[in-house]
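sry for the spam today, last one i promise. struct tokens for design, 494 residues
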């Protein structure tokens, strides 16, 4: 069952402008209602002042490339362990520009893209991975409180809705599995599900109260940048990494700022935290495909609209189809409605050209209206897309290159809001604590089955995606191709 997937279904862009393209504008508090700017609602909720670009030739112990959640958690976790470390974070655009500032804000405990997927790939490690995931989620909540990061965090859990009886069966099986791992799971019949959140669609529900918190992901990312700075990291925006080379005693990270000025950071180690935009590092290309996922955010609901939808407990919601929707309330009672489509652009394409997709926006809006006919008049002024990095195992993958001087983590497949903190801990261990037990996990040590090169990659992704659409239309029954891939333990998802 798909209780923990957070994005529609497909791959695409290298997030952000390519080297030399103008840097995306930073928006403050003025919402870009109906504007053509491909910007997420979250990024309009109070961006802090811009940080200076990196200049000249500097040195550091660790250079972190990318200031999304992976890069910033890594900086924080390195400095928690060794406060004397000189950590430099360089970000091509602005903090949270990538998926970290554009996602649904479902911060889930699962490190494995759900229990079922975890059991498929790491049956012998699932107990520890589940325990680690739950502890990691607690760690995020505690960290935000301890450091005064107001990211509108709500401990509501996540509630999945079924459209069909077979999905209700899946919910039952998942509830048993969750209970077996000591997790609370609340099953709802159709009447209870519709009473909880008023839609004629629901045939049942499954609420997991303890394994997901909802938050404003941009505020979390900005808060982490602030705390990383307070801990001693130098965080630079508008600084694109254009090259990485091995030098005596470490690596040299070549940079270029938005004015075209070159610079460099010579560091003992570098951390690659560029997620779906990681195509710039050739050796990472086989490991992931970027998939574009899209979201809409409405105007704030009126008191009448708010009452008409129920949703008193404000859970993060999702349906259970292959092409699924995820939806939630924001702190000011807007509805974020995302998912369904997941689009791959050949050649691991990423970039601003893919941030808006009118056909997907229309489809999303039509599906919303079918789900909540009582909110027919609700408008969606915010519409955007972002790139998700998916692997054939749907879980993050870790590795080293350049003689161990460079480490990386990517591939969260639509579930990185929580898992990035854990990944930051693994990257920290790879650099500072080689004896860490976690580094011995197969989950950490092994690489996923690679995606084929183009043009086979595009063909494969499109074929699998079409099969998933067909399965949804066919009452959830998976065809031969999907069943074969399931048996082989590989696939494509978001
Ligand atoms: C629409 C959408 C919805 C999602 N919903 C959820 C959800 O609800 N829950 C969930 O858990 N996950 C969700 N995800 C996934 C989640 O957002 C990601 O897994 C997570 O944010 C990854 O963080 P990151 O730091 O690894 O990557 P990013 O946030 O993408 O950060 C990478 C950074 O690297 C920078 N960069 C790239 N190239 C360079 C370079 N050469 N030099 C310097 N910097 C560079 C980029 O500008 C970017 O800021 C969603 C993703 C999308 C797109």
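last one done:
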């Amino acid at each position: 069952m798909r209780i923990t997937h957070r994005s529609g279904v497909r791959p695409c862009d290298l997030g952000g402008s390519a080297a030399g393209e103008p840097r995306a504008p930073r928006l403050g508090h003025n919402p870009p209602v109906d504007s053509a700017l491909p910007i997420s609602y979250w990024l309009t909720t109070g961006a802090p002042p811009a940080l200076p670009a990196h200049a000249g030739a500097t040195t550091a112990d660790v250079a972190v490339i990318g200031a999304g959640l992976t890069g910033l958690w890594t900086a924080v976790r390195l400095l928690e362990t060794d406060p004397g470390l000189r950590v430099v974070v360089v970000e091509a655009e602005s903090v949270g520009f990538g998926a970290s500032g554009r996602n649904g804000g479902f911060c889930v405990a699962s490190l494995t893209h759900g229990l079922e997927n975890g059991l498929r790939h790491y049956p012998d490690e699932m107990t520890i991975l589940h325990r680690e995931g739950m502890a990691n989620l607690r760690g995020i909540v505690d960290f935000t409180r301890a450091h005064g990061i107001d990211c509108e965090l709500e401990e509501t859990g996540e509630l999945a809705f079924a459209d069909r009886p077979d999905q209700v069966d899946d919910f039952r099986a998942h509830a048993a599995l969750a209970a077996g791992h000591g997790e609370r799971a609340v099953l709802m019949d159709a009447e209870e599900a519709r009473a909880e959140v008023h839609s004629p669609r629901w045939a049942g529900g499954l609420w997991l109260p303890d394994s997901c918190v909802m938050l404003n992901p941009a505020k979390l990312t900005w808060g982490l940048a602030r705390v990383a700075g307070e801990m001693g990291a130098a965080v630079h925006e508008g600084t694109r990494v254009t090259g990485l080379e091995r030098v005596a005693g470490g690596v040299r990270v070549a940079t270029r700022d938005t004015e075209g000025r070159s610079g460099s950071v010579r560091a003992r180690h570098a951390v690659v935290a560029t997620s779906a935009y990681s195509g710039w590092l050739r050796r990472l290309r086989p490991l992931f495909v970027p998939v574009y996922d899209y979201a809409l955010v409405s105007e704030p609901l009126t008191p009448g609209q708010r009452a008409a939808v129920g949703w008193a407990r404000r859970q993060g919601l999702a349906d259970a189809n292959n092409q699924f929707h995820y939806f939630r309330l924001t702190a000011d009672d807007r509805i974020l409605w995302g998912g369904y489509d997941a689009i791959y652009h050949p050649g691991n394409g990423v970039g601003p050209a893919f941030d808006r997709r009118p056909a997907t926006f229309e489809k999303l809006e039509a599906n919303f209206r079918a789900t909540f006919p009582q909110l027919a008049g609700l408008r969606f002024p915010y519409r955007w897309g972002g790139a998700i990095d998916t692997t054939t195992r749907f879980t993050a993958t870790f590795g080293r290159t350049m003689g161990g001087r460079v480490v990386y983590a990517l591939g969260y497949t639509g579930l990185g809001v929580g898992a990035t903190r854990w990944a930051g801990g693994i990257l920290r261990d790879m650099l500072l604590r080689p004896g860490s037990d976690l580094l011995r996990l197969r989950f950490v040590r092994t690489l996923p089955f690679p995606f084929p090169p183009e043009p086979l990659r595009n063909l494969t992704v499109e074929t699998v995606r079409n099969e998933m659409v067909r399965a949804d239309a066919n009452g959830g029954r998976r065809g031969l191709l999907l069943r074969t891939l399931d048996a082989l333990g590989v696939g494509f998802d978001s």
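The chain has a mean pLDDT of 90. ok im logging off now
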